[in-house]
Amino acid sequence: MVQKAKILLVDDRPENLLALEAILSALDQTLVRASSGEEALKALLTDDFAVILLDVQMPGMDGFETAAHIKRRERTRDIPIIFLTAINHGPHHTFRGYAAGAVDYISKPFDPWVLRAKVSVFVELYTKNCQLREQAALLRLQLEGGGSHNGDGGKETAGLLAELSARLAAVEEQAEALTKQLGEDAADAAVVATAAHLERKLTGLRRALDALEPGAGGAAPMLPAQG
Fold first, then answer.
1. Across the strands, what pairs with 156?
2. Any transmembrane segments, and where (predicted)?
């Protein structure tokens, strides 16, 4: 059974958090509330999240400062952040959001369907990434345990490789769709960097899988960690 992804909702106004929960409940994922930047950072210390919806205007630590802390931490730096704001100060304000590490910047009031669709892309990528990690762990155990000691060992390893390759292909397809979507939304350096980071991770895993294919030769490489 696939574990539900966690989505972090950060807003100092309870009515806004309630509205976000109503919009995203259809995704059937775990929604976690945080009413301040400090509370969000505390939640990120213990839990893994697929995506963060972060309000810009908050008393004390605002959204930009919260995002800066998130991006400085190795554990959380790669979590996608979608900024939500009730004000619009033009391109400069939007640029500040992307410069802080956001993958998207949405002004309120927003279209519920659009927000739900954007969040669902990141949830799908996160879920597939988790599945890949599990499959990679199983493959490591199979290889380290010398599955070829029994007659079916080679077939089991080949089956794992085929399944992992198929899962990776699905993630690559999702990543390509995400890159196109981000490109349409904002041609910003921070967005391009986010897409490029994901692409590098996928390329590394694909290389490792190709090297493990029968006839590739050489020692079995370490599969890259999927953070």
1. none
2. none
The amino acid sitting at 106 is I
Instruction: Write the CATH number of the domain with boundaries 6-115.
Output: 3.40.50.2300
**Computed over its alpha carbons, how large is the radius of gyration of the chain?**
20
3-class state of residue 179 by DSSP: helix
Whose structure tokens read 């304000």? 93
Question: Tens digit of pLDDT for each residue in 13-43?
Answer: 999 999 999 999 999 999 999 999 999 999 9
Instruction: Please name the amino acid found at residue 191.
Output: V
Task: Write out pLDDT tens, residues 175-197.
Answer: 776 666 665 555 455 556 556 66
Identity of residue 221: P
User: What would the two tokens of residue 223 be?
Assistant: 């599969």
Q: Identify the residue whose tokens are 């100092």.
A: 12
Rounded to whole angstroms, the maximal C-alpha distance in the chain is 67
Strands (E), 104-199: 104-107
Beta-carbon contacts of residue 90 (< 8 Å; ≥ 6 apart)? none
Residue extents of the structural domains in the chain: 6-115
Who contacts 133 (Cβ-Cβ below 8 Å, separation ≥6)? 226
Q: Taking CA 201 as the corner, what is the angle to CA 199 and CA 205, rounded to the nearest 5 degrees? A: 115
Residue 85 phi, psi (nearest 5): -140, 145
| Rounded Cα–Cα distance for residues 10 and 26 (Å) | 19
For the chain, percent of residues with pLDDT exceeding 70: 64
In this structure, the number of other CB atoms found within 10 A of the CB of residue 181 comes to: 15
